[in-house]
């Protein structure tokens, strides 16, 4: 996370030098040297937050990231099977823009994941609730079992340590870079 915080700070300095507000505005003026959109996928954060000392450090760093990264073109995906207040502390949750929940066991877990009840009523098998802004949207996503998800991940990363996706048809156009954990060291 320290590297991501340093990258976020570096980007904000670039934005200040160019008098722009965010990554997309910066990239519009730098077609030849566009900065990529970065994603942090933090799988099963409960495993990372069990140690109390590390949890304190994790919470402080994640709060910094959650507060400021979106304008820098860095997006956080925090994954927890059983969200609770110890895994996702209030200061982190309050700074997360949008949230998504699959079926959860309890109303309390739903309120932690979405700030509202409802995820405990989902049907499972890909039925999801997304909190975008202050409203909840329900959808059905593709359901992959563990073997299918592993097969998809292997297919995506089989030939590449790093994958760059240029999204020219979106507005504003942007670039996503996916890097395998091995490449990050």
Molecular structure report:
39% of the residues lie in helices and 20% in strands. The radius of gyration is 18 Å and the shape is globular. The protein has helices at residues 2-18, 23-28, 45-49, 52-68, 90-93, 107-114, 146-157, 181-184, and strands at 38-42, 74-78, 99-101, 127-132, 135-140, 162-167, 174-179. α1 packs parallel to α4. The protein is an alpha+beta fold. The chain has a 3-stranded antiparallel β-sheet, with helices on one face. The chain has a two-stranded parallel sheet with strand order 1-2. It has a two-stranded antiparallel sheet with strand order 6-7. It has 8 helices and 7 strands; from the N terminus they run ααβααβαβαββαββα.
The structure class reads alpha+beta
Low-confidence stretches: 165-176, 180-185
Which descriptor suits the 3D outline? globular
Sketch the topology as an H/E string, one letter per element.
HHEHHEHEHEEHEEH
**C-alpha-based Rg, rounded:** 18 Å
- The tally of beta strands, per DSSP, is 7
N-C termini distance: 13 Å
Physical arrangement of strands within the biggest beta sheet = 3-4-5
Helix content: 25-40%
Number of helices: 8
Q: What is the average of the pLDDT values?
A: 80
Task: Describe the main β-sheet briefly.
Answer: 3 strands, antiparallel
Strand content: 15-25%
């Amino acid at each position: 996370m320290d590297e991501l915080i340093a990258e976020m700070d570096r980007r904000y300095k670039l934005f200040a030098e160019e008098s722009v507000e965010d990554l997309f505005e910066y990239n519009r003026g730098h077609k030849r040297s566009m900065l990529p959109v970065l994603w942090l996928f933090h799988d099963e954060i409960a495993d990372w937050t069990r140690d109390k000392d590390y949890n304190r450090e994790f919470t402080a760093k994640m709060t910094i990231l959650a507060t400021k990264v979106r304008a820098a073109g860095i997006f956080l995906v925090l994954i927890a099977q059983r969200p609770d207040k110890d895994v996702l502390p209030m200061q982190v949750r309050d700074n997360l823009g949008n949230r998504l929940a699959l079926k959860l066991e309890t109303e309390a877990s739903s309120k932690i994941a979405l700030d509202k009840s409802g995820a405990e009523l989902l049907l499972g098998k890909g039925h999801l609730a997304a909190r975008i802004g202050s409203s909840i949207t329900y959808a059905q996503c593709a359901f992959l079992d563990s073997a299918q998800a592993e097969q998809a991940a292997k297919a995506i990363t089989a030939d590449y340590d790093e994958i760059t996706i240029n999204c020219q048809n979106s507005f504003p156009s942007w670039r996503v870079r996916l890097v395998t954990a091995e490449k990050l060291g």
